[in-house]
Structure prediction request, 53 residues.
Amino acid sequence: MSLLNIILSILLPPLAVFLEFGVGSALLFSIILTLIGWLPGVIHAFYIISKKK
Prediction:
């Protein structure tokens, strides 16, 4: 994970997921979790980005 990914995962979780995976189910799920609450979106973004590598 780069420093940019970490910062974006904290500030704008859907954007971080979008930059890694583009438009898809991971992005949709990240948007929904972020709308429900910021923390679930951040946790999902960290998980999905760290799982890629």
The radius of gyration is 9 Å. Residues 12 and 42 are 8 Å apart (CA to CA). The mean pLDDT is 89. Residues 38-52 form the longest helix (15 residues).
